[in-house]
Amino acid sequence: MAEPVVAAILQQLATIIDREVREGVKLVVGVEKEVRRLSSNLSAIEAVLEDAEKKQLKDAAVKDWLAKLKEISYDMDNLVDEWNTAITKKQIASGENAPLHGKVLSSILRPCVSLAHSCFRYGIARKIKEMDERLSVIAVEKDRFNFSHIRGAEEPERLRTTSFFDESEVRGRDGEKALVLTELLSGSQSPSQPYIMSVVGMGGIGKTTLAQLVYNDKEVIRYFDRRIWVCVSDPFDEVKVAKAILQSLNGDSPNYTEFETILVKIHEAIVGNKFLLILDDVWTEDRARWEPLHHCLKCGAQGSRILVTTRKETVALMMETNYRVTLESLSEKDCWSLFGRIAFFGRRDEERESLEDVGKEIVKKCKGLPLAAKTLGSLLRFKRTREEWQSVMNSELWELEEAEKGIFPPLLLSYYDLPSTLRRCFSYCAVFPKDYKIEKDRLIKLWMAQGYIRPRGSQRVDIVAQEYFDHLAMRSFFQDFEKDEEGDIVICKMHDIVHDVAQFLTKNECLLIEVNVRGEPKLNLCFQKACHSTMILPSGAPFLVSPYDGKKLRSLLLQFIGRPSISAEALHDLFDQLTCLRALDLHDSLIEELPREIGKLRHLRFLDLSYNVKLKVLPESLCDLCNLQSLNISGCNYLKSLPCGIGKLINLRFIDNSQTVHLSFIPQGIGRLTSLQRLTMFFVTGKGKKHGASTLADLKYLNHLQGTLQIGGLGNVANVAEAKKAELLSKKYLAKLQLSFDGKEANSRMIHDSKLLEALEPPPDLKCLSIQFNEGKIVSPNWMMSLAKLKELKLIQCNNCEHLPPLGKLLSLESLVVSGIRRVKNVGIEFLGIKVDGAANNPSIVAFPNLKLLKFGYMDEWQEWDFRSH
Hints:
By secondary structure, the chain is of the alpha/beta class.
């Protein structure tokens, strides 16, 4: 877990030195030497970190060494980020990122900035020397542990599975067994034999048990000529797997060494036979390793089957699975039965009855995971007293030594199979409470705020972050997915025991703090070294920071039970103390005022102020947060403007300002934020309004915008040339666009709005379009019919429109809403996009071929619906 932090520090150090050199700045005497030595020590430590993180499971001294390394790594990360921030602010102040009208002012400020920066570099030099001395001690200590430089040198032991088991010990899985048996014994075929089936699920969920159940079923034994069981595991050695198959077929262990020879012998043994091959515990996603064996197995008789068990959905895809079963958790009833068979074995009835209520609470911890039920059952089998059982009930699983030895190792195999960057992303999820609904978009932003996403070359950070999430989801680290209409995951959960593993890996680094109504935390652990925390406050509880002394917090996520409010004084204390924060979530906390001290949070990347319905103003000091990446002010209904200096937030990528109905002032500086990927709502202020308001031209360079963009106040645009300057056509990542022609500044609205709409041509891949309050006679710009991927279209309150466009030509359209088009009197065949020269009788022409929803409303003058051909 320390590995990604160390790697990030090395990368930042190299970048900073490069920036200083490019600026022609001579580093303080000795600093470059200290930085080189610091980097050298970090590189030496990074080389052995993977081995160290695996050895900590068995060696407390290694665990302690890693804890010290992690602490100094975070301190160094803060220092390097502070250095980087100072350089960025110097660039902003010197005018490198300022608009032209700021150049004169910046030239006056430049000498002061230069002097301040020189003093700052001396301070950095002193801190770097201190860090170097601390790290040197840790670097020396590492040598006594004899860490290996070979990645993957040590990991939890992998158990070898067999086909033998006792069916009487199995609980549940009757439904899954029936499904798999039906598919095994049916005549279903694939274009290329044999038919491949996969059982996918998290570690310990019972995949091997299900495979054993079907492998030993009497019908299966009769149906197949040959049955073969191979435990594949990792690493995937195709020669060993092939030898195991051949040994199972021939009953001996030939001393063949050539892969080709082994495959020939397998081919001879199965040709014309109907076989079942179980490949248990497959991890490899490398198709090149699988293909030779797959081709060899195609000579079996019709009806042959390969059944694969795996934790990774990507394995099932790689093997071109024809039928897949995703194994879910056991029911609580089955889990209790499995637990009770072990825990109550040999006990008297009265003893069992006295422990049942406690036992059922313990079983709830298992959350349907058979491995957990068996492990805890075995633990409690030898605990005789109720007090001992209650002790287990009141403990977190990650605190139990037995869980560390019995439950976690199989799950840790999945963890160590991940690249180091993904490990850190996974373990961060320990910051959330159990059974928490995790919003994918929010999680990705939090990862980005912590610097966990490491793109290569010109890769987009958001694309890489999405790939990270997908990798974790396809490896069974997440579950209970909720998806949008496009089939993309938007919300997920973590299984409680997977969450326990994350907590076990992070220990006191990620803490959940519950505060009672008196403002006292329910916390026995030291909070001083915590890095990430979710704090749960009930209604009426005061928000206090000082008693927790969490000065090293990098994430603070607040959750409220009820609707308490945070005072300005409490926020002042928070901003004054928790200056290491990278992520701060203050959503739905009834904040009335955001203190100017928020500008002290110089490391802050993620700020969620959403649904603070009393918040009216954002302080200008917010614009001092030059590292800020994500600002969420959605649902802040009474917020009227963004701060004028927002153009200084040059690293800002996301502004979510949806449902901010009174936000009518967007400053001109918004046009400088060329990294913006989301700006939910953009409002054009009319002439004579607040000085410094943005215009449509400020959208020109925001070509990374994606998702949804709502442009309001278009009725205030007096010049069509201004609309062309927005260059919406270049916003190729936009999926949804809403054009609202509210506002009353422009003259001759009827003609003007039509021309304005024509100038606002969107990107051709747009999926959703809404046009509102347009006063033109025809709401049909030339570009509309070129939107070949448009799925949803809304035409709302276009009061002067007399004729509907030929929307039937939009072949991808699935939803069409027409409302408030009050002057339309007739809807005829032209609406379908079909010519009236007889082509309407051509059965090959289909209007609206994909339309699923058609809705008309408030069509006051509509008299006729005539689709007859003329």
